[in-house]
Write a structure and sequence with these properties.
The chain is mainly β. The chain has one domain. The protein has 1 helix and 5 strands. A 5-stranded antiparallel β-sheet has the order 1-2-3-4-5, with helices on one face. The longest helix has 13 residues. The two termini are 23 Å apart.
Length: 88
């Protein structure tokens, strides 16, 4: 499983840093050369946009594993953006 954590650090001041989103990407294909993945993402509430905290789930299908991790992250982000988010 990959775990991606997105932290906001205002002006680089670490004591003000906080996690604003996470994503988990889990292989569902026994590490096959071409694999399917379950993606779960969570976001904290955003006071700038008025969006509430939320969670979403999707799948990345038929992804060639012999690519850089960034290719999988890109596909996961593309798929999660198409998904309906559930308010927490």
């Amino acid at each position: 499983m990959l775990r991606i954590t997105i932290d906001l650090v205002p002006s680089g001041f670490e004591p003000m840093g906080r996690t604003i989103a996470t994503m988990h990407i889990s292989n569902e294909s026994d590490l096959s050369d071409v694999s399917d993945y379950l993606v779960t993402a969570m976001e904290a509430a955003n006071s700038l946009t008025g969006e509430p905290a939320g969670i979403a789930e999707c799948r990345v299908l038929a992804h060639p594993r012999r690519q850089r991790v960034w290719a999988l992250l890109q596909r996961a982000c593309e798929e999660i953006m198409k998904t309906d988010w559930v308010e927490l």
